[in-house]
Amino acid sequence: MSTVHAGSIIEKVVRRKNVSISSLSRKLNVNRRTLYNWFNQETLPSKLIGKIGHNLGHDFSLEFSSALSGPDLKIIEDVTMSMQRSENENAETYQYWMCKYIELLEKYNALLVKNN
């Protein structure tokens, strides 16, 4: 990343999305001071940029496309996509068990009505 300042780009996105530093630091499992230090860094690891982007719901590959080489840019996209896939799988699992639970409650209610 030679032509862009990674930390300032990330900070601008955080501010634009109106995300609190405290909540983002909790999501990333770091303290607030670490986030502020990252904002001052000219370069950051691609995986870290991807992880921050995922937690912000933002794809940084657009901002860094001119400054990163193909493999580094691919890392940001891969991290963002794999985390989104994992969230989708969790949502599907959650939906499945919620439906099972509702089905069970309906059967239970039907038994209660039948026995009264």
SSE diagram, text form:
Elements: H1 6-16, H2 21-28, H3 32-40, H4 46-56, H5 70-115
Helix pairs in contact: 1-3, 1-4, 4-5
Number of helical stretches of at least 4 residues: 5
Distance, first to last CA: 72 Å
- Provide the gyration radius in Å: 21 Å
Give the SSE order as H and E letters. HHHHH
Mean of the pLDDT scores? 81
User: Uncertain runs with pLDDT below 50, 5 residues or more?
Assistant: none
Helix coverage percent of residues? over 70%
The counted number of beta strands is 0
- The share of residues in extended strands comes to under 5%
Outline the biggest β-sheet: none
Overall 3D form: elongated
Coarse structural class = mainly alpha
Give a quick summary of the entry.
With 116 residues, the chain is mostly helical.
What does this structure look like?
The chain is an all-alpha fold. The chain has a domain at 6-83. It is 73% helix and 0% strand. It has 5 helices and no strands. The longest helix is centred in the C-terminal third of the chain and has 46 residues, at 70-115. The chain is elongated and about 75 Å long.
Which key phrases capture this entry?
single chain, 116 residues, mainly alpha, 5 helices, 73% helix
